[in-house]
Known about the structure:
There is one protein chain. By secondary structure, the protein is of the alpha/beta class. It has a single domain, classed as Protein-Tyrosine Phosphatase, Chain A. It contains 7 helices and 4 strands. Strands 1-4-2-3 form a 4-stranded parallel sheet, with helices on one face. The chain is globular, with a radius of gyration of 16 Å.
Amino acid sequence: MDPASPLRLRTSICGIDEIEALGDAGVTHVLSLLDPGWPAPEALACLGGHERLDLRFHDIVDALPGLRRPGEADVVALLEFARGLAGAPSVHLLVHCQKGLSRSSAALALVMAQANPGLDADAVMADVMRLRPRAWPNLRIIELGDALLGRRGHLIAAVARCYRARIAVQPRIADAMIEMGRVRELDCALTLG
């Protein structure tokens, strides 16, 4: 959680196993990004009353047989949900996915970019990485959001720089991305930004 986020809302980002720790944090809104068929986390009950948007897609970048990748309709829905927060009093937004690393960090970046259209893309990504240093934002979500928000590739270039920074500190992450079929993110890291 970070009350100083440029979102001007209290924000938290986490994985399923960290939700219970936010039970007393006053979460008012939840953006839940999980695999299709995954049950709603029981831990969400500890947050008390909150509004929630559930989006279901796999944490993939390119189409893979039998898996559902994030689509434009998913990103439109998350941006509409976030737009509704602007007029709400005393908001604490929790964005979570399975591990709190990829789908949630990409979604939070888009929420921040939308709420602050004048904020530089690098500042958006830096804030996400400060909130979740282990983040590896899902490139597909960033690409869709960049187009919908009219960011002209700036969010994509900024996430490429985040990937490069993560690889510099933890080179083995590149092998993990290859194993997960997310080579395009590595290509992005090498060619953009």
